[in-house]
Hints:
The chain is α/β, with parallel strands linked by helices. It is 47% helix and 17% strand. It has helices at residues 15-26, 38-58, 63-71, 98-105, and strands at residues 7-11, 30-34, 73-76, 87-90. It has a four-stranded parallel beta sheet. The mean pLDDT is 91.
Amino acid sequence: MSFEIKRVGVIGAGQMGNGIAHVCALAGYDVALNDMSPERIQLGLATINGNMTRQVKKGTIPEEVRVAALAHISAAENLDALSDCDLVIEAAVDNRSEEHTSELQSH
């Protein structure tokens, strides 16, 4: 039985999560990036853009690859937005607050 991964969900937009989203998008996967707040997701997306821009400046990737890869990444503001992902990778900081724990347990 073979299984094709087309869409990857990443929980956690920090250093590890945005790095995972970055390489998945460069590999051509659609990526849904999730975190606790829209602001954290936007910071993660900005970091990815900055890192890819640095790759363009170094000649590691061409500009059109950067643009295409960024188009593969979307913000997933809640866990339900990951329901259509073929693979979900958790790269979030361990946060044992009641609010966060109950949200994870409900899914």
